[in-house]
Amino acid sequence: MKPIFAKTPSLGMRLIIAIILSIILIISDGRSSLMIQARNMLETAVSGLYYFANTPRSILDGVSGNFIDNNKLQMENNSLKEQLREKSADLLLLDQLKVENQRLRLLLSSPLRQDEYKKIGEVLAAEMDTYRQQVVINQGRLDGAFVGQPVIDERGVVGQIISVGEKSSRVLLLTDITHATPVQVLRNDVRGIVNGTGLNKELVVDNLPRSIDVVKGDVLVTSGLGGRFPEGYPVAIVETVENDTKSQFARIVARPLASFDRLRYLLLLWPIAEEKNYSQSLSPEQVREIVEERRNSVNPFERLKQMSNKKTEVQLETKEEQDVEEIDENPASQPDIESHEENHIEQGAE
C-alpha cells in the first residue's frame, strides 16, 4: 500500500538544492539584467516596510533631540543670564569706583598750605541722629591721629577727632549740638561762633547783635581762634538772618558746605606747631589773605595758565630786544629819515 503523503527530502538534500540555486542565481545576476530588474522591483516593494520600520526610531530621535536642544538652550540661557548679572555688577562697581575716584580727586585738591600735612581716612560707621552726630574712621593712633585733630572733606570743615583708638578714631561732626567752631565772615571779617543743631544741613550763629552786618550768601570760614582748626577753611554759607525784636541778638542760620549726608572719605590735617601758636594772634585781614592763598592753591590749571602767559611775555620781550640789537648792529638797514623828510617837504612845496 502506497503512503498517502510523499516522503519529503532530507535536510541534507534540501541544503544541497539551496546551494545549487544560490550558485545559479549568482551567475545569472552577473550575466543577465533580469535579476537586476527583479531586485529593483523587490526593493521598491519593501521600501515602504523600511520607512514603516524606521518611523519609531525617527520619532524617538526627534523627541530626544528636542529634549537635548531644550536643555542645551536652557543651560546657555542660564549661562548668559549669569554673565549678564556679572557684567551688570561690574558696571555698577565701575560706576561706584568712578564716583569714589572723583571724590578722592576732589578731596586731594582741597586747599592746603605748604606747611600742612594731610592724610585720607575712610568712614567705617556713622551715628547721625538728632542728639549725636559722629562717625568712626579707619585712622587711629598707629596712623598718627590725635584728639582734637581737624577733619575736612573736599568742600569744607567736617569736624574734629574726640577719641583715638589703635586703628580707628571717632570724629565729632560740625553739626553735633555740642560742637562749636570759631568763624569769621569772609566779606567783612565779622567773627562769631558756629554751633551745631543736630541737623546735617543747618548750623546757627548766636550771640551777635541785631545790627551786625551779615547777609544771606556770606561765606563763613574758620578764624583760627582756639587753635583747633587752621584758619581760612570754608565752613558754611549764611541762609537766613533772623532779627527778633524781643531779643538783643540776631539768629543766623547757615548751611554747612561739607557733605554730611554722604560722608565716605575724609581728610585729616596735621598743622605744624608754629601755625597753631601763630593762629591765636591772626588778624581778620591775615585770615582773608590765607583764604585767598588756599583758593589759589585749589586750581593748579590756572597756575599753569599764568606761568604759560608769563613765558609768552618773556619770549616776546626777548624777541624785541633781539630786533633792537640787530638794528643797532646794522645802521645801514635803518631807513633814511632825513632824506624821507626832505622829499616830503619838496613834494609839499611843489
Automatic annotation (TrEMBL):
Domain Rod shape-determining protein MreC beta-barrel core: 123-270
Record's compositionally biased regions (Basic and acidic residues): 301-321, 337-350
Keyword list, A-Z: Cell shape
Pfam families: MreC (PF04085)
Any one Gene Ontology BP term: regulation of cell shape
GO cellular component terms given for this protein: plasma membrane
Gene3D superfamilies reported for this sequence: Rod shape-determining protein MreC, domain 1, Rod shape-determining protein MreC, domain 2
PANTHER family: CELL SHAPE-DETERMINING PROTEIN MREC
Family the UniProt entry places it in: Belongs to the MreC family.
Protein name (database record): Cell shape-determining protein MreC
